[in-house]
Structure formats: structure tokens, C-alpha cells
Amino acid sequence: MKALFDKISLKASVMVTNAYSTSFSLGIRMLNESVREPVYAIYGFVRFADEIVDSFEGYDKAALIADFRKQTDAAIAQKISLNPILNSFQHAVNHHKIDQWLIDAFFDSMEMDLEDQTYDQETFEKYILGSAQVVGLMCLRIFCNGDSTQYESLKEGAMSLGSAFQKVNFLRDLKADKDDLGRIYFPGMNIQEWTPQLKKEIEADIAIDFKHALEAINRLPSNSKYGVYTAYRYYFKLFRKLENASFEELFTKRLRVPNTTKFRLLFTSKARLAMGTYFL
Q: CATH top-level class for 2-275?
């Protein structure tokens, strides 16, 4: 019975999500049950691709990501895969009619990570689009449940949210990206050019993304508003910590939000939504 295989495939996606990210795991649990499963499927998929380009040292990463891309396209076309992560992902894609260009853009960004490069504004925006914004759009397609008008009205906000999350990740992971992966994503920068003024410019850009995203969260359907708002507040809290740190601190340690704070956000976010107060 394929239904049993599909169930096992989804469990694999859930396990991957829980193992790799406590923050996203908590956020997904706050989504309505009707949309939770396909979001797990998306996260499991993007996590595996990210692991290929980030973690598989000593292996032919280019060949592995190319093969994974080929398997993904085949899974979507055939509506099945013996890879459980791809099987649950293809089900989400086909059932919710997720656009192929989103998947293509995602792989294009993953392939950019195969080589050390200095990012200019154009390549930085391309990377942000494929690594983060399209993931937000995949999830939005699920949240809107076939309502194309609603999807189009929330599209820019979802992209801003993905952009804010990714840029915060870049700031938080400056040390690991530079030391372990040889990457600095912000356009054209090297460690000698990181000045307080540059940090303020980056943070101002992220703040704009957060502002645009919050406007859209207010209009999300009820199946996703709580989970997305909670994730938003977690990342904004992390952003504030990064703002208060110097570049020297960011290049020497990885700042994080304590688990106690994460759990507190769950309860306060629900209360604020109930009162209709979307402040931070």
C-alpha cells in the first residue's frame, strides 16, 4: 500500500526537521494541522540539499547536488520516489501546485554554494531569492490552499520574511561561514571592510524586510498566522541581539536565543494574536 509508504516518508521529513532545527520545529507545530505536513516535507527537502553543499566534505558535492536535482524533477514528474524525503516533497508540490520555477531557483542558489565567490548586489539578491524567498513562497502556496488571489496579495510579504530570516542567519553565522565554509555573503565584503557603519547599513536593510513581512503576517489565513508570527518574533529577537553585538563578537561566537525565551514567545504570541496586537 503506497499510503503506508507515504506515511513513512512524511515521518522521515518530520525527523529531519526535528533533528536539524528546534526553532522551525516549534514554528511548524504552531501551524494548523491541515498545513503542517506539507511544510515538514518542504523543510526536509531543503535541509537535505543544504547539507549536501555545506557538510559533505570529501565527496563530490557538485555531482551529489546535480543528482539530487535530477531525482527531485523525476519524483515530481512521476509522483513517487524511493527516497522518502523526495517522496513527501513531491506530494506537497503536486498536491498544492507549487511552481517549478521556485524549485529551480532553489537549486540554482544551492549550486552557488559549491564555489567560493565574492558576492555583488546582483548575485547576493539571486542567492537570497533561491535560498530563502522561494521557500517562503512554497509555504505560502500551501497556506493559501489554492486561493491564487490571496497568494498574489501576500507574495511580497512572504519574500520579505524569507529575506529577513536569511540575512539574520548570515549575521549570526559569520564566524562559521567564514572559518568553516570560506563564505561571506554580504555583497563584496571581506573581513577588513567590516565597519560599524556597514553593520548599521545591513541592519537597516533587514529592518525594512521585517517591517514589510509584519504587514503581510497580519493578513495571513488562520491556518498559519500563529506559527509564522511566532517564527517572526523569534528571528526579530535574534536580530536585536545581533544589533547589540559588535562585528568582533560576531566573528568570535555564535549568538542564539535561549530555549526559555523561545517557549515564552509561543505563549505571548498566541495572546497577542487573540488581542489583535501585532507588535513585537
A: mainly alpha
